[in-house]
Amino acid sequence: MEAKERMQIPRQKMPEQDPKARGKNFDEVPFGYSEETAIREAQRCLKCKKPSCVAGCPVEIDIPGFISLIEGGDFIGAARKIKETNALPAVCGRVCPQEEQCEVKCILAKKGDPVAIGRLERFVADYERNAGKVQVPKIAVSTGKKIAVVGSGPAGLTVAGTLRLLGHDVTVFEALHKTGGVLVYGIPEFRLPKAIVEAEVNYLKEMGVKFVTNYVIGKIRTVDTILSEYDAVFLGTGAGLPLFLGVPGENLNGVYSANEYLTRSNLMKAYLFPKYDTPIVRGKNVAVIGGGNVAMDSARTALRLGADNSYIIYRRSLDEMPARKEEVHHAEEEGIQFHILTNPVAFIGDENNWVREIECQKQELGEPDDSGRRRPVPVKGSEFRIPVDTVVVAIGNSPNPLVPATTPGLDTGRKGNIVANEETGLTSRDGVYAGGDIVTGAATVILAMGAGRKAAQAMHAYVMNGKKE
Amino acid sequence: MAKIVKKERLSADLVRMVLEAREIAETRKAGQFIVLRINEQGERIPLTIADADAKTGTVTIIFQEVGKSTRLLGSMGQGDDILDLAGPLGKPTHIENFGTAVCVGGGVGVAPMFPITEALKEAGNKVITIIGSRTKDLLILEDEMKAVSDRLLVMTDDGTYGQKGFVTQALEEIIKSGEKVDIVVAIGPVVMMRAVSEVTRPYKIPTVVSLNSIMVDATGMCGGCRVSVGGKSKFACVEGPEFDGHQVDFKELMMRQKTYMKQEHESLECFLNQALKK
Questions:
Q1: Which CATH class is domain B93-210?
Q2: H-type helices in B10-55, by residue range?
Q3: Quick check: A400 and B219 CB within 8 A?
Q4: Which residues of B touch A175 (CB under 8 A)?
Q5: Are A92 and A449 in contact (CB under 8 A)?
Q6: Which tens digits make up the pLDDT trace of A150-181?
Q7: Pairing, β B84-89 against β B81-82
Q8: Contact A405/B at CB under 8 A
Q9: Between chains, do A274 and B259 touch, taking CB under 8 Å as contact?
Q10: In B, which residues are within 8 Å of A278 by CB distance?
Q11: Domain definitions of chain B by residue range
């Protein structure tokens, strides 16, 4: 097919659940491509000689390579091509911000719509799984080296998969009762079905990665005791300590951290209460504080739990919102109400300690701050109140201190994050590597996976040659 | 998975269970707790460790059957498996030779008080223990507590056993008798811990209480367990569960514990209806 012809094909839409209907269920929102649409979309790729999309991918997937295979109808081959560098394609196809990574670099994006790389990744991963064609890759001959991975989130799973492929004996320790980290406790079912995470973890299990759940490192064992049994350790414990605003009334009943709200709903399946035992407050007027993906997930969860009004309260404007455009769009479609340039200054409760109102203050944008975004400045006399019965604070997380606090000699930064080399993940301790949110603070799934991939390579070199890379 | 090695009913609704958990038994310290999940639909239940045996690799929990989950747990027996068990969690009790320590346990709170009392005794303290319950049948661990205390006082609200009255009365008498009390540790219902803290406040006796706020993950990730201590928000699961009783906002804690009252009733009703059908 000629380039001109390829360029005339419009970017293929992915069918989705109707916004009204989906606001009442927890089923996944998009349905995914059909075989025909996938091939059609794949035909749009110009197969650039020097593809810049690959450089935009933190795990360097051979993007033109897998897209060519789709075009030729070899969907299984395409899935396996991705899995050469990414063990979790069904997850990444769904939650990666492609619009700022691979797709933004696509040559087609200069004049129009980029190739829908994420949708294609998702399609082939689902195709392979649904066809029952997931195949355990060839594992290198055993090296006799033992690797411990702390945390089974995206960073830990990537390290585990990469190092197992190279023939190491890998054990992953998870504090919770389920593996997947933020993929199971944080991201809702309607955005990432838990069966998919389970399938990707099972794939690693079939590769021979061992998983130990209910095992809190820093409590039952320290990193040092692990080091006495393993050749190297990777710390991927995540950004697991929720931040609060520090305004009056934050300990009122009905005020949640996003971590708690989402963990109850996602990990503990409180949306199926009382079939599942964990309760959650099903508020009628729910306010979510924050403008990231987690805030969108929380507001959309509130809607599905039966809220009449689900608000996003964000102190800057829509332009500064850190959430993915697609997530904001989905939220708007579903009827989430946005109070932008608005900052909560207090939560007001009743005599039984239940939250009833939020006192807000309007903001205007001033000069850019450290983050490069324009700083919100309070507008005097602009205070107003919003009646609520549930509040979800989604303003981010700081690193969980359990591991740093119990590991002498492990350097941490100002915010308590573990200090690790950007290229290798090596920490201040020999044989101890770290990556993901515990190093960077709350970021994305794929950045954690990218860090995991780099760390895995450095760890391989270290355990094989004793090289400190 | 953790096997129930032994189960014993201590009173009408108090159950003692010995669970197979070798590594927890080996590493736990006084004051720490575990989280368990009975089955796939289950919630994560935090329970303070009442005892542990590193040799047999077991930990002991004692719980009161209140809602659905604790009743379901209470209906399980020897040889049954509990799906998930994680621990030890929380900070251990700060143990040293303070001098004279008064250990106060109320109701099912006597159970988590036991390892702390034992540790304080081992550290060389003179240990005076006060245990109390509503009535004689609900009193637990009298012999065990006696074995690790220099003196044991028993109180029942209705006077059916020991002295009639609240544990706070016994505590006040000890302090007023001129006994120099260096530390008080109290575990029991929130109202009791608050009352104990009020008794010791005028005397400025350091008072430690163990808070059972609502938790989900119990590793610091959700923040559901936050309590106000000295005007600051603390996470009971990782910064506690023990705090300075004179600094704790008990009123807030009591109200926060009622967050899911409605759902707890609903859940229990469903459970009881299903049990009836069977």
A1: alpha beta
A2: 22-27
A3: yes
A4: 86, 217, 219
A5: yes
A6: 999 999 999 999 999 999 999 999 999 999 99
A7: unpaired
A8: no
A9: no
A10: 43-44, 216
A11: 2-89, 93-210, 211-264
For the cut 50, the answer to whether the pLDDT of residue A468 exceeds it is no
Q: What is the 3-state secondary structure (H, E, C) of A367-422?
A: EECCCCCEEEEECCCCCEEEECCEEEECCCEECCCHHHHCCCCCCECCCCCECCCC
Cβ pair A352:B83 closer than 8 A = no
Tell me the C-alpha distance between B252 and B94, whole Å.
25
Min distance A237 CA to chain B CA atoms (Å): 11
Top-level class of domain B2-89: mainly beta
Cα–Cα distance measured from residue B91 to residue B69, given in angstroms and rounded to the nearest whole number? 25
Look at A213 and B84 and tell me if their CB atoms are within 8 Å. Answer: yes
Backbone phi and psi for residue A250, each to the nearest 5 degrees, phi listed first: -75, -15
**Cis status, amide bond into B88, omega within 30 of 0:** yes
Query: A252: nearest CA in chain B?
Result: B256
Q: In this complex, how many residue pairs, one in chain A and one in chain B, have their CB atoms less than 8 Å apart?
A: 115
HSE at residue A51, side-chain half, CA atoms within 13 A, is 23
Tell the burial category of B206 from Cβ atoms under 10 Å away from its Cβ (0-12, 13-18, 19+).
middle
Please name the residue of chain A whose CA is at the shortest distance from the CA of residue B37: A177
Using CA coordinates, name the residue in chain A closest to B42: A277
> In chain B, what residues touch A241 (CB-CB under 8 Å)?
220-221, 223
Q: From chain B, which residues contact A within 8 Å (Cβ)? A: 23-24, 27, 37, 41-44, 68-69, 83-89, 216-217, 219-224, 226-228, 233, 238, 252, 255-256, 258-260, 263-264, 266-267, 270
Q: For A119-153, what is each residue's pLDDT tens digit?
A: 999 999 999 999 999 888 899 999 999 999 999 99
Query: What does the alpha-carbon distance between residue B141 and residue A205 come to, in Å, rounded to a whole number?
Result: 45
Angstrom distance (rounded) from CA B198 to CA B192: 10
Q: Is A220 on the interface with B (CB under 8 A)?
A: yes
What pTM does this model have? 0.95
Distance CA B165, CA B133 (A): 9
Question: What torsion, rounded to 10 degrees, do the Cα atoms A57, A328, A200, B35 define?
Answer: 120
What's the complex ipTM? Answer: 0.95
Tell me whether domains B2-89 and B93-210 share a fold.
no
How much is the pLDDT for A469? 43
Contact A219 B228 (CB under 8 A): no
Question: What is the C-alpha separation between A464 and A457, in angstroms, rounded?
Answer: 11
CB atoms within 10 A of CB A387: 13
B86 with A214: Cβ contact below 8 A:
yes
Of the partner residues B68, B89, B222, the one whose CB lies closest to the CB of residue A260: B222
Mean pLDDT score across all residues of chain A: 94
pLDDT tens digits along A256-309: 999 999 999 999 999 999 999 999 999 999 999 999 999 999 999 999 999 999
pLDDT-derived band at A371 (thresholds 50, 70, 90) equals: confident
